[in-house]
Design goal:
This protein is α/β, with parallel strands linked by helices and 410 residues long. Helix content is 38%, strand content 10%. Helix 5 (175-196) packs antiparallel against helix 7. It starts with 9 loop residues before the first helix and ends with a helix.
């Protein structure tokens, strides 16, 4: 689904909105080799800005509208513009999850039956719950309601929750890195806008807020926002790098206590793949995970609904998208593979498949339909990693974060 496709280059612009990019497939899904079959999958939506960004965006818009004159016709829409976005809620584009549910039914229909329908969990934020129910509705519709999965477990974000990144109070954030990058690219943008709207007195922070309003307004209205035309492709690329830095240094590899926040979920993943009880002393809810009702081990399709920061922590704990050189907060690498738009766009998805080839069991992982190489567990060109080797490769999670979890509370 593309937005504003009548605008030249708009689809490419959308790919430079970092974590605010509308979902796009980062690769083409590949069927397993002919002699293999998928026997289990685990599937890990879009939203309005949260309260803090909402206030900053409204303040920036107000300053822009305070200008006595606009010297560029691209700003004339502001004369009659009213900021009307909500906060925290699932935007209409979140219905992409409905389409994802349909796709996943058709892709994995062979492993679904009346006695074995998807088991679905969600973290308790309303937008995450709505993402889950949109997905189940799409799955049910695609099956002509032969299978009607329900949201079976909602994990409270006030308790132990492997679908939220709220259980490490000592974890740092990405403010230093994103602020450093904003100090480079923000002033020229603010200065340019101030020439287009004399008297607005916009700051670098305002420029960032207005840049972010382009994707938020676009996904909310399902049409390319007029705010997007205010900025150049180069400025959006600078904005994109801010998102890349944020994800890397917030819960990714650049945050010492980032990956450990994904450990509990990985141990749940391993339990499902091996059919053995969860072994974890980190974020898991032991009461729920010890019950076959709230954590069954005999399903073929599992769907978990989470937050983008938590997905980044899970990628890092797994070993996906590993980096030999940390992103430089003052100098983007144009060849980087750490791109938030590909890792966690709106409605991002990670799918872990258990695949049987003859008498052997394997694992494959797809992130937004792009098959992951899994070199860390010996996968070849087909991306198949022997199940035992995959389990062995996850020693960080199986050792409860190798002491990092305790550091969350020291």
């Amino acid at each position: 689904m593309s937005l504003g496709s009548s605008t030249p280059g708009s689809l490419e612009i959308q790919k430079s909105w970092a974590q605010y990019s509308p979902f796009f497939a980062a690769g083409k899904y590949e069927d397993p080799p002919e002699h293999c079959k998928v026997v289990q999958i685990q599937r890990h939506g879009a939203r309005f800005p949260t309260a803090g960004p909402s206030a900053a965006i409204k303040a920036a818009v107000s300053k822009l509208q305070s200008a006595k004159v606009f010297t560029d016709p691209r700003l004339s829409f502001l004369e009659n513009y009213t900021y009307d976005l909500g906060q925290d809620d699932l935007v209409p584009f979140g219905a992409q999850e409905f389409d994802a549910g349909r796709v996943h039914f058709h892709r994995y229909a062979d492993i679904v039956s009346n006695g074995n329908i998807p088991f679905v969990r969600a973290s308790s934020s309303e937008r995450v719950v709505l993402s889950a129910t949109n997905w189940t509705a799409g799955f049910a519709t695609a099956s002509s309601h032969a299978y009607n999965p329900k949201l079976s477990v909602i994990l409270s974000e006030a308790l132990n929750d492997t679908l939220d990144d709220s259980m490490c109070p000592n974890a740092g954030n990405s403010d230093a890195q994103t602020s450093r990058w904003l100090s480079d690219y923000g002033p020229p943008i603010a200065a340019r806008l101030n020439t287009l709207a004399p008297g607005a007195n916009l700051t670098s922070a305002d420029a960032f807020s207005l840049l972010s309003l382009c994707p938020f307004d676009t996904v909310a209205k399902n049409s390319l926002s007029p705010f997007c035309a205010i900025f150049t492709p180069a400025e959006f690329q600078q904005f994109e790098y801010s998102g890349d830095l944020d994800k890397y240094y917030n819960t990714g590899y650049g945050q010492p206590l980032g990956p450990v926040q994904g450990v509990g979920y990985i141990n749940e993943l391993l339990a499902r793949l091996t059919g053995k009880p969860v072994e974890d002393n980190t974020q898991t809810n032991r009461t729920l995970d010890s019950s076959p009702t709230t954590f069954p081990l005999n399903r073929t399709v599992y769907a978990d609904f989470s937050h983008d920061n938590q997905m980044i922590a899970i990628y890092a704990a797994l070993g996906l998208f590993s980096q030999t050189t940390p992103p430089d907060p003052s100098l983007p690498n144009p060849d980087r593979n750490w791109l938030a738009s590909r890792l966690v766009p709106f409605s991002a998805q990670m799918i872990t498949e258990k695949v049987v080839c003859g008498q052997s069991e394997y694992v494959r992982i797809f992130v937004n339909d792009a098959r992951q190489p899994l070199e860390f567990c010996g996968a070849k060109e087909d991306g198949l990693c022997e199940l035992g080797a995959f389990v062995a490769s996850q020693s960080y999670a199986r050792n409860d974060g190798s002491g990092d979890f305790e550091k969350c509370f020291d």
